[in-house]
Amino acid sequence: MGSVSQSLTRMLRGTSAASAAPAPAAQKREERISRRSSGLAEFTRAIAGEEGLRILDLGPTSPANIAHLTDLGHKVYNEDVLKESLDPAWLVPSEDGAQVIDANRFFSENLAYPTTTQFDAILCWDVCDYLNEGLVKPMVNRIHRLLKTKGVLLAYFHTRDAGPDAPYYRYHIVGADSLELQYGPRFRLQRVFNNRHIENLFRDFASLKFFLARDNVREILVVR
Fold first, then answer.
1. H or E stretch including 119?
2. Which of 19, 123, 132, 221 is the most exposed, having the fewest neighbouring CB atoms within 10 Å of its CB?
3. β-strand pairing of 91-93 with 99-101
4. Which of 204, 203, 170 is nearest to 186 (CA)?
5. How far apart are CA 173 and CA 28, in angstroms?
6. Does some domain include residue 206?
7. pLDDT per residue over 6-30, tens digit each?
8. Which residues contact 6 (CB under 8 A, 6 or more apart)?
9. What is the reported pTM?
10. For residues 113 and 170, what is the distance between their CA atoms, to the nearest angstrom?
11. Are the C-beta atoms of 170 and 184 separated by less than 8 Å?
């Protein structure tokens, strides 16, 4: 991440993506919260009117997402990048003896599609906020290669007001602009990107558009 990694606002120093955030006692893990999403509405418009598009979902497998997108006539691929990143098999010792993720090794087996396979759209959700820092920029670089020219990517980023104990959600698409948020594993927010950091992260893409939601989350639609 270079200069970006040095200037990122750390929500909790010295923790890994697997660190647990305490869940409010009153919350039921199976509870779902309805949410409108302007970014999803824009994403939906971008994939409308054409069938057989390849769409990659980087979150946990969601039957709702698969059903929604296949009903539109598209092909859905899924890779839970965050979950896979927690496998200790990717860790190697650094020069100072600490354990760090070997990004090259990780991406030799994850998002490792042939160069002939490209996607028309990608759902990144809020993976960047929870992913190990050493994997964020390499993942975005890999996405740039996998996404077709003029392809679209939807991503969510927390604002500073979210706080380090902001719950991690699984996102389920239930309409053109509607989601159901389900409490997922108790991952701790690793960082908060400001707008400049986000623009730098996606600087190799053609454009990005910000949507500010009411729940301390910014929605971003990126065009390759």
1. strand 119-125
2. 19
3. antiparallel
4. 170
5. 20
6. yes
7. 333 333 333 333 444 444 544 456 7
8. none
9. 0.85
10. 24
11. yes
The type of residue at 78 is: N
Domain that holds residue 180: 37-223
| 201: in domain | yes
Cα torsion through 147, 75, 127, 223, rounded to 10: 30
pLDDT digit string (tens) for 49-85?
A: 888 999 999 999 999 999 999 999 999 999 999 999 9
Q: Is residue 8 part of a domain?
A: no
Smallest CA-to-CA distance from 10 within 133, 98, 167 is with 133
| Residue 150 pLDDT > 90 | yes
Contacts of 122 by beta carbon, 8 Å cutoff, 6+ apart: 55, 56, 57, 58, 143, 146, 147, 151, 152, 153, 154
